[in-house]
Design a protein that fits this description.
By secondary structure, the chain is α/β, with parallel strands linked by helices. It is built from 13 helices and 14 strands.
């Protein structure tokens, strides 16, 4: 099957959506599909990354809020019928609208929907954008949500989607079992794009209640990075809170191997990939009690070490971090794999296009979660 994956950004850009798209397209290519990523960037380029052709189109509107590439839209208008299916990602970016307008190609949409914007300005724009969002939803043969919590939000705001909205949880990367680090310093890992809604500032403030035998490793980049570095310095935590920026896979694996615990204080997530990856590595984890994190907890099962703690309660968060860092590594949680995601997504493509998927690799021990009577069930194996 020839698949065009339309994304706001792509590797080496980092973030939850970028990771999702990268893992998905790699799995599709491994399954024998011809996959192209259609994305936008500062300049035009065509390159092959990890066996996948990546077309980058120059930005017409480079603003951080709803950036737009008109050349990308023109490409899709001219070439969309060359693909068996287009798969657009992220409601919170105009690129999905480009995929929905001006062509008749079968469309699958993964909105990664939070129900609001990630800043006051974007939250104010959100109601104004909803008619355009409704256009994308109406054009989509299937709307793929990564949690039931996200699906509930989608159906709350777009009830007309109905049974076209299905759930395929994000996958986790298999990681080798590693012993607990031998160190007097207990390192707490915080991974994600550094935006205000991730609330890393709450974690930094909680670190002021812990002694120098605790260290926070912040991995990621984003617009709030400078502000949070200044906060750590003002609190006298410059040596106790370490900002690593963007790490490649090998450097991140090394950081993960040295961690005693993980934390996510995010206020909005469609899934909570950082929490899932930490639990899959056997790391005791502290997370904000948002619906997506609760759902990941359910997928991970009772054996996973996870404390849901309000990040606005500084004392409680500090206590939970201390407890997690002292707990020691546990058996890695068994969560859906990216093979599961690829297999279930190819079922969606088959249902939407009416074309059977080609040979699909065996799924892992955890199967993707789909609602009864979903689109995937209609076209699945």
């Amino acid at each position: 099957m020839r698949i065009g994956v339309v994304a706001n950004a792509y590797h080496p850009d980092i973030g939850g959506v970028e990771t999702h798209v990268r893992r998905l397209v790699a799995g599709l290519a491994a399954a024998g599909d011809e996959v192209e990523v259609i994305t936008q960037a500062a300049g035009r380029s065509v390159e092959t990354i990890e066996g996948v052709l990546v077309r980058r189109f120059p930005l017409t509107v480079p603003a951080g809020n709803y950036r737009l590439s008109v050349p990308l839209w023109r490409w899709l208008r001219a070439h969309a019928d060359e693909y068996d299916v287009l798969h657009a990602h992220s409601y919170h970016a105009l690129v999905a609208l480009c995929a929905a307008l001006g062509n008749r190609a079968p469309l699958v949409f993964t909105p990664h929907y939070h129900g609001t914007g990630h800043s006051r300005f974007r939250a104010a724009l959100h109601p104004l954008y909803r008619p355009f969002g409704r256009t994308i939803m109406a054009r989509s043969g299937a709307v793929v949500c990564v949690t039931a919590a996200e699906r509930d939000l989608v159906l709350r705001d777009f009830p007309e989607v109905g049974d076209r909205a299905v759930v395929i949880p994000n996958g986790t990367d298999p990681r080798p079992s590693v012993p607990a680090p031998v160190s007097r310093v207990r390192r707490i890992l915080c991974v994600g794009r550094l935006e205000q809604y991730k609330r890393v500032d709450r974690v930094i403030r909680a670190m002021s209640h812990l002694g120098p035998d605790h260290r926070l490793d912040v991995v990621g980049t984003g617009p709030a990075a400078a502000q949070w570095r200044q906060l750590a310095a003002r609190l006298g935590l410059a040596g106790q809170v370490v900002f690593h920026g963007r790490l490649d896979d090998a450097a991140f694996d090394a950081c993960l191997a040295q961690a005693s615990a993980a934390v996510s204080a995010s206020a909005h997530e469609a899934f909570g990939m950082a929490v899932a990856d930490a639990l899959a590595a056997g790391l005791p984890t502290v997370a904000a009690p948002i619906p997506a994190h609760r759902e990941v907890a359910g997928l991970a099962g009772d054996g996973a070490w996870l404390r849901l703690t309000d990040p606005d309660d500084e004392t409680a968060l500090a206590a939970a971090l201390s407890e997690a860092a002292a707990a020691g590594r546990t058996r890695p949680a068994t969560l859906p794999s990216w093979d599961d995601v690829v297999g279930a997504t190819r079922d969606i493509y088959a249902a939407v296009t009416g074309r059977p998927a080609s040979v699909i690799p065996p799924r892992g021990p955890a199967s993707a979660v789909l609602p009864e009577g979903s689109v995937a069930g209609a076209g699945g194996r």
